[in-house]
Amino acid sequence: MKILVTGANGYIGTRLLPVLLEDGHDVVCMVRDKRRFIKKIEYPEKITIIEADLVSGKGLDQIPADIGAAYYLVHSMSSPKGDFSDTEKTTAQNFVDALTKSSSCRQIIYLTGIANDSKLSKHLSSRLAVEDVLKQSGIPCTILRAAIIIGSGSASFEIIRDLVEKLPVMVAPRWVRTRCQPIGIRDVLRYLKGVLAQEGAYDQTFDIGGPDILTYQEMLLGYAESRHLKRYIINVPLLTPKLSSYWLNFVTSVPFSLASSLVESMKNEVICRNDDIKKVVPGDCFSYRESLNMAFEKIEQHSIVSSWKDALNRGYLQTDFMDQIKVPQNGTVSSQVKISFDRNADDVLENIWGIGGNRGWYYLNFLWRLRGFADKVVGGVGMRRGRRNQNSLIAGDALDFWRVLLADREKKRLLLYAEMKLPGEAWLEFCIDDSDKSGKTLIQTATFRPRGVWGRLYWYAMWPFHLFIFKGMATQLTQYGVQRQLPAHGV
Questions:
Q1: Are 411 and 430 in contact (CB under 8 A)?
Q2: Residues 36, 49: Cα–Cα separation, whole Å
Q3: What pLDDT, on the 0 to 100 scale, is given for residue 250?
Q4: Residues 6+ positions from 225 with CB-CB distance below 8 Å
Q5: 3-state secondary structure of 375
Q6: To the nearest whole number, what is the mean pLDDT of the chain?
Q7: pLDDT greater than 60 at residue 306
Q8: One-character DSSP codes across 57-126
């Protein structure tokens, strides 16, 4: 069967692709930019990639006519302007309009959130509105409603991980007593695969969840016990949703816009009403502890396939960000450091490719963390996103408060774009020039395009950073692993 997958670069979509391909399906991946498509699977002849924008509708006419089923795996809950509800309805409507006009699609499968409470959060209400749009298409719909998903790289897991690993004592608001029914990523994929082309799943809505019903507090303490950590939670009823959002933003890697949506949703119990899904897809789900342990295994093996951090944050970086691979020259200011070195160029390249995350930024790392903290204060992404994989980088990866624009090992060039809050735009580029027989040179360039007077004042205020820290970082990149080993966090 030919299957359309929207959000093929997202957390769920990336993991669903190999499952569908292994079953022999031909998959059409809908992405906003082909250059960001993460192809890590061995069935290229069975994959077709189309570029389309569900918000504007541009490119949707490329959907093949012989689509048998379509997975709808997109959402917009992290929009910093708070307009994700309207955006979600628009994208859903554009999606069904395109399907009904140009294809013979016989099933739409939508993964959403459990929405059983009478008074829903804005986030869950938006998801419910999308369900209505999809159901009105006339195409049989299968709706899978899940609570929080536990798996390496999932937003829910990473938030729990951030809180428990970093805070021996947690001051928590009332929402930590809300009950939910977490489900492991492997079971989500099993259900997504299992309902495909099953007539018993047509025009049906299923709640999916694991066997455990837990409060968020019990989930946090359960994680701590799995990691052999002593953690204490103090409930403070005075924390408002807005204060809770700021708290979550400071402590974890989620931006404030996403934290706000999550906190608001945590007032709703997300518990399955029944287990009707087992009539269509038999089998028991993994427990919360089992799902945690499988996530730990993936992290320890450095084999996280996808992460919620891979998604672009509207307001920080536009969807056409890869058009900026050539750093602009007009209206910019820059600072460049050149360091000559004699060692093997591949060794220095490995150091460049290992930058950020646990290894840090090689020189005066506490100042980088201070800059990340300042970004969090003003609602930015901060430093806590880390990196998807400590050993590899690909275009589109989040890297602390940067986004990877280009990672070209052959040409020995890495280009980063700043996603922190700035009065302008910033790029950081590393490249190695080994064309001269007399020696090799690391060229490190920081470029900034200021926005107005405040932008120029910011650039000059940061001059000491460029003068000392960038030079020190470039020097360490050429020496790391030879003269001395840096500690794990670069302190």
A1: no
A2: 11
A3: 67
A4: none
A5: helix
A6: 82
A7: no
A8: -TTGGGS-TT--EEEE----TT-TTS-HHHHHHHHHHHHHHHHHHH-----EEEEEE---SSS--HHHHH
At 161, the amino acid letter reads R
Extract the tokens encoding 467: 């003068």
Cα angle for residues 300, 302, 304 (degrees, 5° grid):
110
Residue with tokens 């093997």: 344
52 SS3 class: coil
Tokens of 399: 């890297």
Mean pLDDT of 447-461: 84
Tokens (6 digits) for 419: 């996603």
**How many helices (DSSP H) and strands (DSSP E) are in the chain?**
15, 19
Is residue 203 a contact partner of residue 140, using CB atoms and an 8 Å limit? yes
Cα Dmax for the chain: 73
CA–CA distance from 469 to each of 28, 324, 367 (Å)? Answer: 46, 25, 9
Between CA 439 and CA 434 the distance in angstroms is: 7
- Burial (CB < 10 A; 0-12, 13-18, 19+), residue 366, is exposed
| Residue 460: per-residue pLDDT | 84
Query: H helices of 236-353, where?
Result: 241-251, 256-265, 277-280, 288-300, 345-353
Location of structure tokens 């672009």 = 312
Question: Helix 11-22 crosses helix 185-194 at what angle (to 10 degrees)?
Answer: 50
- What kind of architecture, by CATH, is found in domain 316-479? 2-Layer Sandwich (3.30)
In the numeric block, which tokens belong to residue 117? 């409470």
The pair of three-digit structure tokens given for residue 219, joined into one six-digit string: 């989930």
State residue 150 phi and psi, 5-degree precision: -105, 115
pLDDT of residue 490 exceeding 50: no
Rg, the chain, Cα only = 23
Q: Reduce the DSSP state of residue 328 to 3 states and report it.
A: coil
pTM summary value? 0.68
Task: Dig out the tokens for 397 from the structure.
Answer: 């990866």
Per-residue pLDDT of 375-418, as tens digits, reads 878 777 777 777 877 778 888 788 888 988 888 888 899 999 88
Angle, in degrees to the nearest 10, between helices 122-135 and 84-102: 10
Give percent helix, percent strand, percent coil of the chain, each to the nearest 5.
40, 20, 40
Q: Give strand pairing partners of 235.
A: 172
The pLDDT tens digits for 206-218 are 999 999 999 989 9
Q: Side chain identity at 204, as an amino acid letter?
A: Q
Q: Kindly report the backbone phi and psi dihedral angles of residue 56, in degrees, each rounded to the nearest multiple of 5, phi listed first.
A: -85, -20
